[in-house]
Amino acid sequence: MNTSFTQKSTHRIPAEFIPESALLKMIENDIRARNGEVTESAVIHQLMLMIKQEQNVILCDIYRQTLEFMIQEHRIAS
After folding, report:
1. CA-to-CA distance for 64 and 8, rounded, in angstroms?
2. Nearest Cα to 45, choosing from 67, 24, 26?
3. Read out DSSP for the chain?
4. What is the pTM of this model?
5. What is the pLDDT of residues 45-66, one digit of tens each?
6. How far apart are CA 2 and CA 59, in angstroms?
């Protein structure tokens, strides 16, 4: 298992950029193509899988920050 995702980055993606990011659009398009609909839970699950499989520390950090944003947004919406 890749443990680098647990490390905190000193570089943060501004939260206002995450909802319109190419990463989230790619994940949403992939989920839509497979399932026909996109849910927050599906996006969160996909990000978790990507973190687990990623070997690149920088990409892992981007996925982790995006996951943290999605979880926070999911809590706010609930």
Report:
1. 9
2. 67
3. ---GGGSPPSS---GGGSTT-HHHHHHHHHHHHHHSS--HHHHHHHHHHHHHH---HHHHHHHHHHHHHHHHHHHHH-
4. 0.80
5. 999 999 999 999 999 999 999 9
6. 12
